Amino acid sequence: GAVVSQHPSWVICKSGTSVKIECRSLDFQATTMFWYRQFPKQSLMLMATSNEGSKATYEQGVEKDKFLINHASLTLSTLTVTSAHPEDSSFYICSARVVHEGAPYEQYFGPGTRLTVT
Amino acid sequence: GQNIDQPTEMTATEGAIVQINCTYQTSGFNGLFWYQQHAGEAPTFLSYNVLDGLEEKGRFSSFLSRSKGYSYLLLKELQMKDSASYLCAVLDSNYQLIWGAGTKLIIKP
Fold this sequence. Notes:
- The structure holds 2 protein chains of 2 kinds.
- Chain A is built from no helices and 11 strands.
- By secondary structure, chain A is an all-beta fold.
- In chain A, the strands form 2 sheets. In chain A, strands 2, 4, 5, 6, 9, 10 and 11 form a 7-stranded mixed beta sheet that branches. In chain A, strands 1-3-8-7 form a 4-stranded antiparallel beta sheet, with no helix packed on it.
- In chain B, strand 4 (32-37) and strand 5 form a beta hairpin.
- The mean pLDDT of chain B is 94.
- Chain B has strands at residues 3-5, 9-13, 18-25, 32-37, 44-49, 53-57, 60-65, 70-75, 84-91, 97-99, 103-108.
- In chain B, the strands form 2 sheets. In chain B, strands 2, 4, 5, 9, 10 and 11 form a 6-stranded mixed beta sheet that branches.
- The interface between A and B is medium-sized, with 21 and 20 residues.
């Protein structure tokens, strides 16, 4: 089946520093990847849609200069949280869209990255 | 606007049956997904419905009525490991997933 990996699984960083999170599709090519953020006891919040070879499409209210997304290849998308602040502490999850007959546009999720900014 | 409603929390007993409802109002419809999410983990796919009716997959079944904008996830023979949040998501006309807030299911012995 389709497997999506994410690295790191958790990270602690100091306020003002930048953190890069990698999302990889291990056994398939993903033309479209999604980045979500989830705060405790809340649902998934879509941050941006990442298409290979083009600029990401950000959701309203998400600062594109703060959350840099790069989708340079069909198997890798990265999210960089720049100048992180404590309010950026959250669970960041990526997913990749897989188009198949059983469930078109199904999204397979990575295991998530828990970011804590001190 | 687009809206997906599901109960915030439900409690059920081990071995019993529980039905989690989801109603939606979206701009277009290209299918409805149910995902399971354990605390601290990413969501995992449970089911996909695009036509009206019941889809059965082991202990889990999912039902869809497009005319009513309604779906439910039915869990039978509940096990303690079924304690999780269940997310309803609709694929809209732009093939974007619109997520519900999730239903936290608590299973008691």
